[in-house]
Amino acid sequence: MPHSDFCRRHSHELDRNSLRLEYESLASFARRFAEALEDQLSTLITSHGLTLGVPIERRVKLWTSIVEKLKRKDVKKIDSLRHLDDFVGIRLILLFKRDIHGMHRLLSKTFRVVSYEDTASRLDEAQFGYQSAHYVIALPDDWLKVPTMSEFRDLRAEVQVRTLSQHIWAAASHKLQYKREASVPFPLRRSINRVSAILETVDLELERLLDDRESYVTQVAAVSEDRVLNVDIVRAVLESKWPIQNADTGDENFSDLLDDLSKFDITTSSKLSELIDEQYDAAMEDEVQNVSLAQAELQANGSVLGTSADRTNRGVFFTLVGLTRCALARKFPHEWAEHQNSEYAAEE
Q: Is this model's pTM higher than 0.85 or not?
């Protein structure tokens, strides 16, 4: 072996060994960074009314993946793993396409975006392929002033944002290794194009459904006539009757409440409105009492059961659904207790 080749190979081995030592010391630190990012992103998504298709995914790049990356000829020499943009990875799979734009605004506003690419821009109008928005983010300067965040000063993370339909395509194409049309055997191209078109149609039709639903809800709110309850009418009545600060954009189960109401023959918007008007003061007494108890518990223990610390600090306890159930319990105390007992028995 020529001396120059031996020196080059020996140098590469030294580089790899030093990176391996760095990996062993940095991996747990990077996992904490990934966990902190997941917590912050989860709060942002919930508080802004965006909808995840599946739970947030996070990972720290495996050493074997880094070695593979180092072997590629087109990869620049890496002096430190902290310089890897994708050492920490977060994947956000959203249910609706419109939330992609909302997520873009949140990431741009909240974090320091080092780079951004929408892979769909690589495709011509008639092409299919992998679609995902890729961000490389770092923590903003204001966050780095917080002691628990300052340790992450030099780290970056790659955040992938896509819809559930786009994720199905990404997972299937990765398994089949059909990431681009040129990779697909010619006899299979009609089939693969149909799959791509169907998944894109799912996103478009869900957008149309959301638009139609918004039009329907607006129409319902504008008309005062009595209507048979459905989940959207229940929501419209509750939002018009209860304090809006009690609403929980992330977890209001109007469907289960609709079942509860039907058991007490509250099946129209007028009956629901009458229930709330009649029991409003009593339900708000329950609200004030529970807020007081939750604040005392939070102060004593640093955590609270039955609600979140954020809602407790904002002075709210029950959701709109919760307030309505308080009204039911006040209006039908014995029947509501029996109903609750039967629900618990069914769950067991």
A: no
